[in-house]
Design a protein that fits this description.
The chain is of the alpha/beta class. The protein contains nine helices and 39 strands. The protein folds into two domains: 224 residues, Spore Coat Polysaccharide Biosynthesis Protein SpsA, Chain A (Alpha-Beta Complex); 121 residues, UDP N-Acetylglucosamine Acyltransferase, domain 1, CATH 2.160.10. A hairpin with a 7-residue loop joins strand 8 and strand 9. The structure holds uridine-diphosphate-N-acetylglucosamine and calcium ion. Calcium ion binds next to loops.
Length: 470
């Protein structure tokens, strides 16, 4: 049987007090809507997913266009009932539809499937996914015919609860299954006679029951899964829940994470077995970490790949880079876009790299800037070495061949080639290519004036005595 999925994502999210549409806020490194679409497309192909957009429709569509879902525009946001009504033309040829909320992002595909199957087996006109959280405040409540009946009488929104209904803990998750025919035969009966003056989709429950249809409810396995994100604080809670979940998934695959609640790990991140993640580490975007790595505290790694046995010491910032096996980074190394660090290479304290390829076993241990450079194997880059890659207009490359030794505090003015096995003396300013196996010195010769300091001190002393005697 063909199902369509309708995702309601047109609302502004007034309670967030944000300029950005609610469904474009992120948790776990992805927008709310991307999470919901990811769950939906596990159930039906993307061409059967219809996203109702309205507030900031252009931005919302652009953000998820690559998923291949379809869009329905709700020009004016007149409530959840109106959102589904807007999708009528698009989905009325399907026998059943599943309705998801763009702001309920932890929902798992298994739960959607369970609701769908229950809906079909109960031959219901409407099925509501419910939950019983500790604090039901703010959610619509689901009134069953009797406590152990699958059948529902109505959904009552928070603001319309009678004092006795306040005690009902079973909430409406905002996720539903509908038989299309009774839904659209009755949807025009919805009214705006309520606290918000909106067309509530929740009123369909009572309407359908009054028309003699069967409306059922099924509870989600965990209340966390159906929590909504209506405020920034709720958003932060969902973010924490999602990231903790990601951390637990990684731990189940053999990764050690000390104090997982302090880490910030995006949902797509992969980490190999026997790697260790220390407290306060952030692993973001499309980051892949191999096996037997150790990521020490306060490091932030984004869209980077680390092969096996890499040690990242404290406080490193690594983005859009590739680090080969056995490399050693930090503390406080900054690997910027396009850094390719070779096997067993070292990039140490306060070293910044950008568009650099560094060969096997090469070392830059302290205080360097290496940009637009090709560094061979077994190169030693001394403390404070700087590639001067920018002349104010263009970027130039520095090529340092295998086995070169670059002394400390050297400036390498690109374009430049330092030939294989060459030595560059400390404190040099190198502006010309250095042939293989040569020694290049690019500094003024030292002059030493014997006794100069001593005679200077006695001059000062004599001047002071003249001053006093006046
Ligand atoms: C809704 C339910 C409530 C339930 C809760 C669960 C209604 C009336 N109430 O309340 O019973 O407990 O979800 O999270 O449905 N939207 C549109 N177009 C609109 C209005 C809303 O697309 O005109 C979208 C929103 O972008 C959002 C979703 O529908 O993604 C839910 O709307 P929201 O205003 O957040 O409803 P709640 O007040 O949370
Ligand atoms: Ca909501």
């Amino acid at each position: 049987m063909r199902f369509a999925i309708v995702i309601m994502a047109a609302g502004k999210g007034t309670r967030l007090k944000s300029k950005r549409a609610k469904v474009l806020h992120q948790i776990g490194g992805k927008t709310l809507l991307e999470h919901v679409i990811a769950a939906a497309t596990q159930i039906v192909p993307p061409e059967d997913v219809y996203v109702v957009v309205g507030h900031q429709a252009g931005a919302v569509q652009a953000a998820v266009a690559q998923t291949g879902v379809k869009f329905v525009t709700q020009a004016e946001q007149r409530g959840t009932g109106h959102a589904v009504q807007t999708a009528r033309q698009a989905v009325s040829s399907y026998e059943h539809i599943l309705v998801l909320s763009g702001d309920v992002p932890l929902l798992q595909p298994e739960t959607i499937a369970r609701m769908r199957d229950f809906h079909l087996s109960e031959r219901a006109a409407m099925t509501i996914l419910t939950a019983a959280p500790d604090n039901p405040h703010g959610y619509g409540r689901v009134l069953r015919k009797s406590p152990d009946s699958a059948e529902v009488v109505a959904i009552v929104e928070q603001k319309a609860l009678t004092p006795e209904q306040q005690g009902v803990r079973e909430i409406n998750s905002g996720i539903y299954a509908f038989a299309t025919e009774p839904l659209f035969n009755n949807i025009n009966e919805l009214t705006t006679a309520n606290a918000h003056g909106e067309y509530y989709l929740t009123d369909m429950a009572g309407l359908l029951v009054n028309e003699g249809h069967r409306v059922t409810a099924i509870q989600a396995a965990s209340a966390t899964e159906v929590l909504g994100a209506n405020t920034i604080a709720e958003m932060a809670e969902l973010d924490a829940a999602m990231r903790l979940n990601t951390a637990h998934k990684l731990m189940a695959q053999g990764v050690t994470i000390y104090r997982p609640e302090t880490t910030v790990i995006d949902s797509e991140v992969k980490v190999g077995a026997d790697s260790i993640i220390e407290p306060f580490v952030q692993l973001l975007g499309d980051t892949h970490i191999g096996e037997d790595c150790r990521i020490r505290s306060y490091s932030v790694i984004e869209n980077a790949t680390l092969e096996n046995h890499v040690l990242v010491r404290q406080g490193c910032i690594i983005s859009e880079s590739h680090v080969q096996a056995g490399a050693l980074l930090g503390p406080y190394a900054h690997l910027r876009t396009g850094s390719e660090i070779g096997e067993e290479a070292h990039v140490g304290n306060f070293v910044e790299t950008k568009k650099v390829r560094m060969g096997k076993g090469s070392k830059a241990n302290h205080l360097s800037y290496l940009g637009d450079a090709e560094i061979g194997k077994g190169v030693n880059v001394g403390a404070g070495v700087i590639t001067c890659n920018y002349d104010g207009v263009n970027k130039h490359r520095t090529l340092i061949e295998d086995g070169v030794f670059v002394g400390s505090d050297t400036t390498l003015v690109a374009p430049l080639v330092i030939g294989k096995g060459a030595y560059v003396a400390a404190g040099s300013c190198i502006t010309e290519d250095v042939p293989a196996d040569a020694l290049a010195l690019g500094r003024a010769r030292q002059t030493t004036k014997t006794g100069w300091a001593k005679s200077r001190r006695s001059q000062i002393q004599a001047a002071k005595e003249v001053e006093k005697s006046r």
